[in-house]
Amino acid sequence: MTNTKLFEKLRSLMAEADRTDKKHIKKLRKVLHDLKDRQRELQEKLQQPGSSDEQARVQQEIDVIKLQREKGAEVYQRIKAERKARKNSKGEQS
């Protein structure tokens, strides 16, 4: 899957963060994992000899992926914390 498609999928999952279920969380986690794999591929590509222009482009792509992963991870952690808090508050009410 291309970076653009992964970013679009991540963006849509983050936009729907207020109405989450277990399935939504799994999708978000999968996209984050796919972005991490893509970042690793690009890191390996960066280690290979090539033109400085190509390496600069790859490094820029890596930086964008890092930022998107950070944003997605923040949303993922927030969703998980909210679900846990809701679960705990339901358990205390019983």
Judging from the principal axes of the Cα atoms, what is the shape?
Answer: elongated
How many discrete structural domains?
A: 1
SSE order in H/E notation?
HHH
Total E-strand runs:
0
Give the end-to-end Cα distance, rounded to a whole number of Å: 45 Å
> What Rg do the Cα atoms give?
17 Å
**Largest sheet, strands/sense/barrel:** none
Average pLDDT score: 86
DSSP summary: helix tally: 3
Low-confidence stretches: none
Question: Please, could you describe this protein's structure?
Answer:
The protein is mainly α and 94 residues long. The chain has one domain. The protein has three helices and no strands. Helix 1 (3-15) runs parallel beside helix 3 and helix 2 (22-47) runs antiparallel to helix 3. The model has no long low-confidence stretch (mean pLDDT 86).
Chart the SSEs and their pairings:
Elements: H1 3-15, H2 22-47, H3 52-93
Helix pairs in contact: 1-2, 1-3, 2-3
